[in-house]
UniProtKB/TrEMBL annotation, chain B:
Membrane topology qualifier: Multi-pass membrane protein
Domain (Cytochrome c assembly protein) ranges: 24-184
Keywords: Cell inner membrane, Cell membrane, Cytochrome c-type biogenesis, Membrane, Transmembrane, Transmembrane helix, Transport
Residues passing through the membrane, by range: 21-44, 64-84, 91-114, 129-149, 161-180, 205-225
Species classification: Bacteria, Pseudomonadati, Pseudomonadota, Gammaproteobacteria, Alteromonadales
Cellular localisation: Cell inner membrane; Membrane
GO (cellular component) term, any one: plasma membrane
GO biological processes: cytochrome complex assembly
Main location, first listed in the record: membrane
Name under which the protein is recorded: Heme exporter protein C
UniProtKB/TrEMBL annotation, chain C:
Coarse class of the protein's main subcellular location: membrane
Record GO biological process: cytochrome c biosynthetic process; cytochrome complex assembly
Gene: ccmB
Functional description taken from the UniProt entry: Required for the export of heme to the periplasm for the biogenesis of c-type cytochromes.
Protein name (database record): Heme exporter protein B
Family: Belongs to the CcmB/CycW/HelB family.
Membrane association type: Multi-pass membrane protein
Gene Ontology CC: plasma membrane
Record's subcellular location: Cell inner membrane
Residues that span the membrane, as ranges: 26-44, 50-71, 103-124, 130-157, 164-185, 197-216
Keywords: Cell inner membrane, Cell membrane, Cytochrome c-type biogenesis, Membrane, Transmembrane, Transmembrane helix, Transport
InterPro entries: Cyt_c_biogenesis_CcmB, Cyt_c_CcmB_bac
Length: 245, 257, 225
C-alpha cells in the first residue's frame, strides 16, 4: 500500500504524472485553477478504496481537448472503477475531479450534458429494437433524430436488423447498438469502458476511425482496453494501474 | 497524503473518546439499575388498582421510551454518516441498531407479560403494543439491510438511508396507529393503563421510575459504546493502534490470571 | 441543454414500451390480486355481511401485496443492463428521472388495479355507495405505494435476494396508508363522511412524491457501486 511508485504514467511528450510527487514533475503541470482552457477533465490526487484494498492513490490526470487516454492494467486493478469515478457515478475516496475548471459535483448537469459514457453494461434495452434504443438516447441527449438513421445503421453493420429486439441479436451486435451512439452525439468528452470488446476487426477499425474524427474535432476520449489501440491518427496517453494488494 | 487518505486516525480518536466516555455511562448505569430495581420492586407502594403486577413498569416504561429514543439517535448517526461521509457514524448506527431492537423487544415482551393479568390475554392490538411492534420491524429492516450487502460501506450507507426514511415515518405511524386504535376500540381495559401514565402518578412511584429510566439509558448507552469500540477494533485489527490496544489487553489478562 | 420535460417524457415512453413487450410480467400482479380477493370468500365463508365488513381491508391488503410483487421491476432490469447508470448520467436532476420511473410504475401497476377495483368490490359484496370512496383511496394511495416502493427497490436492487427483505423494509412504512385507506372505505360503508381519512391519504401522496425522489436518489447511488 505504501508503494509510491505503484502508479506511473508514461507520457510520449515526456511529462510524468501519476503519483509521482509534484516537485518531481519535469514540466510544471498546471494546477486545475489555472489550467489552460483546453483542459476538459482534470483529476487531482484521486484515490479509490474497495473494501480493504486500495485500488489506486494520488492519481492525476489532465485530459485536454484532442487527447485520447488509455487506462491500462490487469483485471481487478481498478480500471472500471476509475472510469466510473471520472463520470461521477462513484465517489472517490480522496481527490477531486474538475470539468472545465469546475468541481463536477457543482456542475453535474452541465458536465453530464457534455459527457458520453458507455460502460461495461451498455444500457441497451433488450426488449427494444436498435432504432428505438438509439432514438431514446439521441432524444435525452438533446439531439433528437427525426428519421430512422439508416445510414448510420448501415455504417455500424446493423442494417436489416433494425426491427429485431436487441435481445435476439449477438453480443457484438448489441455492442454496436451502444457504440452507434458515438455517431449521434456532439458531447466533447467520451468515457468508454472496453469499447472494443465483442467487436470484429472491421468494427474495431470503424471505431478507431470515429475516434480520430472526434479527436480532430477537438474532442477527448478516455478508454480502457486490453487491446493495443492504434494511435496512428491521434496522440495516445497511457495510465498504468497495477494490481495492489 | 496517506494520513488524509485513510480515516484511521479518526477511528483511533473515536476509540479513545469512547474509552473515556464509557465509565461515565457504565458506572452510573449499573449503580442506578441496582438502586432503581430494588426501590421499584421492594419499596415503592403497590398500586390501588393493579396491586403488585404494576411493578413491571419499572422495566417496561424505560425500555419503551428508549426504544424510540435510540431509533432517533440511530437516525441522527445515519444523517451524519450520509451528509459528512463519516465512517465512524455508520459504525455508530450499526452499534445502536441491535441495542435498540433489544429494548423494543423487552418493551414488547414486558407489555405482553403485563397484559396477561390485566387483560387476560398475552397480546391485544393496543396502540402502544402495535406501534412498538412496527418499531421492531423498522429496527429489523435496518439490520437486515446492512447484513444483506457484501460491501460493508455500501451496507452502512443503505442502512443510514433507511433509518432516515424510518424516522420521518415514525410519528406518522405512531399517530395513525393511535387513531386506528381508538377507531376500533373494543376493550376499555386499556384505559386503565393509559390513565396510569398520566401525570397523576404518585411521587413514590414516579421517583423510582425516573431512576430506572435514567439507568436504562446509561446502561444501553454503555452497551452501544462497547459495541462501537469492538467494531472499530474488528474493522481495523491490522492497524498499529488496534494492535497496540489488543496486545495491552492481552498482557493485562495474563497478569490478572 | 435538453429540456427536463423531454427527458421525463422520453423515459416514460421508453419504459412503457419495454413493459408492453413483457406482458406476462405486467399481468402477474393483477392475476395475483384477483386470486387473493377471490380466495377470501372461500376462506371466511360466503356470507354477504361478513364479506362486506372485511372488504375494505381485504382489497387494500391484497393491493399492497400485489404491488410488492411487481415492485422490483422498477429498477431491476435497468440495474442489470446498465440503463440505470445511463439514467444517472442524464443532464437533468436525477429526481426528475426518478419521478419518471415512479410514474411509469404507477401507470403499469396501479392503473389496472383502478380499472378492476369495481370488480373486486363486487366480488366482496362491498355496498355500491362505498365504491366511489374505495376508488378514491386507490387513486390517492397507489402513488404512495409506487413512491415508497421505489425507495425500497433502490436500496435492494443490487442484492440478489432482495424479495423478502423488500417487504420487511416497506410494509412497516405503508401501515399508515393501510389504516387510513380502510378507515375511509369503512366510513363510507356506514354512511359517514370519508373526507378526513381521504385528505390524509392525499397528504401522504404529496409527502411521498416530494420526499421519496431524494431517498431513491441516495439509495441508487449506494446500489450503483
Amino acid at each position: 500500500m505504501r508503494n509510491l511508485s505503484a502508479l506511473r504514467r508514461v507520457d510520449p511528450v515526456g511529462k510524468i504524472e501519476g503519483n509521482v510527487p509534484e516537485n518531481m514533475t519535469t514540466q510544471p503541470t498546471a494546477s486545475p485553477q489555472s489550467a489552460d482552457h483546453k483542459t476538459l477533465l482534470a483529476a487531482t490526487d484521486l484515490a479509490s478504496v474497495r473494501g480493504e484494498r486500495t485500488l489506486f492513490a494520488d492519481l492525476n490526470m489532465h485530459v485536454r481537448a484532442g487527447e485520447v487516454w488509455q487506462i491500462e492494467g490487469p483485471n481487478g486493478a481498478g480500471k472500471s472503477s476509475l472510469l466510473r469515478i471520472l463520470t461521477g457515478l462513484l465517489a472517490p475516496q480522496a481527490g477531486q475531479i474538475q470539468f472545465r475548471g469546475e468541481p463536477i459535483q457543482n456542475c453535474r448537469e452541465a458536465f453530464h450534458a457534455e459527457l458520453l459514457f458507455i460502460g461495461h453494461k451498455a444500457g441497451v434495452k433488450a426488449e427494444l429494437t436498435a432504432i428505438e434504443n438509439l432514438e431514446f438516447y439521441a432524444a435525452v441527449q438533446g439531439q433528437p433524430i427525426s428519421a430512422p438513421p439508416y445510414e448510420l445503421l448501415e455504417k455500424v453493420g446493423l442494417v436489416g436488423l433494425e426491427d429485431i429486439p436487441a435481445q435476439r441479436l449477438s453480443a457484438g451486435q448489441q455492442r454496436r447498438i451502444a457504440l452507434a451512439r458515438l455517431w449521434l452525439t456532439d458531447a466533447p468528452l467520451w468515457i468508454l469502458d472496453e469499447p472494443f470488446t465483442a467487436l470484429d476487426v472491421s468494427g474495431i477499425a470503424l471505431l478507431e476511425a470515429r475516434f480520430a474524427e472526434h479527436v480532430a474535432a477537438g474532442g477527448a476520449i478516455i478508454l480502457t482496453s486490453h487491446q493495443a489501440v492504434n494511435s496512428a491518427h491521434f496522440p495516445l496517453q497511457r495510465v498504468q494501474l497495477r494490481y495492489q494488494y | 497524503m496517506w494520513r488524509w487518505l485513510h480515516p484511521y486516525a479518526k477511528s483511533e480518536a473515536t476509540f479513545a473518546l469512547n474509552q473515556k466516555l464509557l465509565p461515565w455511562f457504565l458506572i452510573p448505569g449499573l449503580v442506578l439499575t441496582i438502586v432503581g430495581v430494588i426501590w421499584g420492586l421492594a419499596y415503592a407502594p403497590p398500586d390501588y388498582q393493579q396491586g403488585e403486577s404494576y411493578r413491571i413498569i419499572f422495566v417496561h416504561v424505560p425500555s419503551a421510551i428508549w426504544s424510540m429514543g435510540f431509533y432517533v439517535s440511530m437516525a441522527i448517526a445515519g444523517l451524519i454518516a450520509l451528509v459528512w461521509q463519516i465512517r465512524t457514524a455508520e459504525l455508530a448506527l450499526l452499534a445502536i441498531a441491535p441495542v435498540g431492537a433489544v429494548l423494543t423487544f423487552i418493551s414488547l415482551f414486558t407489555g405482553a407479560v403485563w397484559g396477561q393479568p390485566m387483560w387476560g390475554t398475552w397480546w391485544v392490538w393496543d396502540a402502544r403494543l402495535t406501534s412498538q411492534l412496527i418499531l421492531l420491524f423498522l429496527y429489523l429492516g435496518v439490520m437486515a439491510l446492512y447484513v444483506a450487502f457484501e460491501d460493508e460501506r455500501a451496507g452502512g450507507k443503505a442502512a443510514s438511508i433507511l433509518a432516515l426514511v424510518g424516522v420521518i415515518n415514525i410519528p406518522i405511524i405512531h399517530y395513525s396507529v393511535y387513531w386506528w386504535n381508538t377507531l376500533h376500540q373494543q376493550s376499555t381495559i386499556t384505559k386503565v393503563i393509559t390513565r396510569f401514565e398520566s401525570p397523576s402518578i404518585a411521587p413514590e412511584m414516579l421517583w423510582p421510575l425516573l431512576v430506572n429510566i435514567f439507568a436504562m439509558m446509561a446502561l444501553a448507552g454503555a452497551l452501544v459504546i462497547m459495541r462501537l469500540n469492538n467494531e472499530l477494533l474488528r474493522r481495523e485489527v491490522h492497524r498499529p493502534w488496534a494492535q497496540a490496544i489488543l496486545n495491552q489487553e492481552k498482557k493485562e489478562n495474563q497478569n490478572a490470571v | 441543454m435538453v429540456a427536463t420535460r423531454t427527458v421525463f417524457l422520453q423515459l416514460v415512453k421508453r419504459d412503457v414500451r419495454v413493459a408492453l413487450r413483457q406482458r406476462s410480467e405486467l399481468l402477474n400482479p393483477l392475476i395475483f390480486l384477483l386470486i387473493v380477493v377471490s380466495l377470501f370468500p372461500l376462506g371466511v365463508g360466503p356470507g354477504p355481511d361478513i364479506l362486506a365488513r372485511i372488504a375494505p381491508g381485504v382489497i387494500w391488503v391484497s393491493a399492497l401485496l400485489s404491488a410488492m410483487l411487481g415492485l422490483d421491476r422498477l429498477f431491476r432490469d435497468d440495474f442489470r443492463d446498465g440503463a440505470l447508470e445511463q439514467m444517472m448520467l442524464l443532464p437533468v436532476s436525477m429526481e426528475i428521472s426518478v419521478l419518471a420511473k415512479i410514474a411509469v410504475h404507477w401507470l403499469l401497476t396501479a392503473l389496472p388495479v383502478l380499472l378492476i377495483a369495481p370488480l373486486l368490490a363486487l366480488l366482496l359484496n362491498l355496498p355500491t355507495h362505498a365504491w366511489g370512496v374505495l376508488w378514491l383511496t386507490l387513486l390517492f394511495g397507489t402513488p404512495v405505494l409506487s413512491a415508497a416502493g421505489a425507495i425500497g427497490v433502490a436500496l435492494t436492487v443490487s442484492l440478489n435476494k432482495g424479495g423478502a427483505l423488500l417487504s420487511l423494509l416497506l410494509l412497516p412504512l405503508l401501515i399508515p396508508l393501510l389504516i387510513f385507506a380502510t378507515a375511509a372505505v369503512e366510513a363510507a360503508v356506514s354512511g359517514l363522511s370519508a373526507a378526513g381519512p381521504l385528505a390524509l391519504i392525499g397528504a401522504f401522496m404529496v409527502l411521498s412524491l416530494t420526499l421519496a425522489p431524494f431517498a431513491v436518489k441516495a439509495g441508487l447511488r449506494v446500489s450503483v457501486n
